[in-house]
């Protein structure tokens, strides 16, 4: 387990950042004219794209061969993390709202990263 965590330090740091950002109170800034409709979904997609890229990077550094199953596994981990955040928003951090659309955006970001990683690694 320690060897696995050795390669996932960036992923864990990013996960803490995402957890903090997705559960903080936004206040009136959420209604600022600088944010366009859908900005929240784009942010979720980008957060989980980066999370999955970092997780796959750590996995590739840990073991030399990267398989389709590894990409699917990292995708599943990212979606589970996204679902955890939405559950926390729904039941614990009640100033935020857990939404299916956010989980979908998380899944799209994770899927884009897993697909991109498969293409680049296999090339």
UniProtKB/TrEMBL annotation:
Entry's transmembrane regions: 12-29, 41-60, 72-92, 104-121
Protein origin, superkingdom: Bacteria
Keyword annotations: Membrane, Transmembrane, Transmembrane helix
NCBIfam families for this protein: vanZ_1 (NF037970)
Protein name: VanZ family protein
């Amino acid at each position: 387990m320690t060897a696995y965590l050795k390669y996932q330090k960036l992923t864990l740091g990013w996960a803490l950042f995402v957890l903090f950002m997705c559960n903080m109170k936004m206040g009136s800034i959420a209604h600022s004219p600088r944010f366009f409709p859908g900005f929240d979904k784009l942010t979720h997609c980008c957060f989980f794209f980066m999370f999955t890229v970092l997780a796959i990077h750590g996995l590739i550094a840990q073991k030399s061969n990267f398989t389709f199953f590894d990409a699917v596994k990292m995708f599943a981990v990212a979606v589970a993390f996204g679902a955890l955040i939405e559950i926390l928003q729904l039941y614990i951090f009640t100033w935020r709202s857990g939404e299916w659309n956010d989980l979908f955006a998380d899944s799209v970001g994770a899927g884009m990263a897993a697909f991109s990683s498969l293409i680049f690694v296999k090339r």
